[in-house]
Predict the structure.
Amino acid sequence: MSMNRRHFMSHLAASAALTGPVAASFTNIMRANAKELQKKHKACILLFMNGGPPTIDIWDLKPGAPTGGPFQQIETSAPGVKISEHMPMMAKVMDRAAILRSMSTREADHTRGRYYMHTGYVPNPSIEHPSYGAVIAKECSNPGVDIPPFVSVGGASFGPGFLGMSYAPFVVDANGDVRNLNMNMEAPRLAQRLQMLGQIEGGFAASMRGEAPIEHKKVIDRTVALMTSDQMKAFKIDDEPTAVKERYGVAAPGAGMAAGGMRRNTTFGRSCLIARRLVERGVPFVEVEMGGWDLHQDTHNILKNTQLPALDQGMSALIEDLTQRGMLEDTAVIWMGDFGRTPRINTRAGRDHWARCWSTVVAGGGMKGGQAVGATNEDGTAVATDPIKSEDMMASVLKGLGISLETTYTSKNNRPMKIANAGSPIKELFS
């Protein structure tokens, strides 16, 4: 099921400041009906590197090989695991993370790669599969939380597929703002709009147009409840201690560099901090998007000066913060992109699309860190061990969160669909 986002947001703008009693009533109904779905604070944060990161320059370096590039590798807190010299903060927390170095996929097109990595299924014109966010939102929804169970920070992510709009991503920017949402509306005007909206929605629902109007109304009602809830504060980081914000790379504009040479004001770092705040308040799935990875030219200069400093600080701060708060064991952190990039460096000093062998990273969520799982050959052109597929990684994350891999959904055309496309959990993550 899909819905035009502009149409969807226009309805949200009309309903964003509903008065307290109605919102409270909706919240009580949600809590009563969703009680069976509640889990014990299990959650997942997906760090998605939009464009396809060159993992051979980050997590699986090949120093001395013609394909290796100029970066050196450094030791980490995980014995025997080395990563890029431009990831020194991540090197300190690698004992809590696992690099999956033998990822091998076939989708080297951006749209298809994003879809496959988000769902565990290759695109199929006859069916839209649910993404990580929708599946975890459905299985781990917390009825005591007004915030939608699937939040995407900085990008639209992939939707709920046949699970319905109740599990669609609620999209905010890196400041925690919802685009085109006007909260400054006088009560009488708002009441008129809500009454008109109710009549329109009721008419659609009564005209036997399928599930879309019903799902649409659920999303609107939940958004209205959110906009009148104190839980909205989770999207704003102003009340965080200065030291915490600086650790993520967030401080006042123009403040220069933080102590220890940390870079400030990164959008990615701010987004990671919002993600931690949301998970801390009971949101089961948050995706953070970081763009700028489609590096067909000048790859290593861009990595060194822009991408890796921001990634290193934001990702390491998130893992460290979750650890210190006792949340990492129940919160899975995933780092991945559309695919990897070619071992061969092209004539523009860049790397092109490459899905044959590359790396992803997982941490927390009941999975064993401090290791590199799988390997590529000496020049990074092929997988040297058993390959890992997208559905295997997804199955591992779900298993770590306590979600049964026997779970089967029924698609709109009445086909049974195995959760995570019947992938096999990666045994090293649970040994």
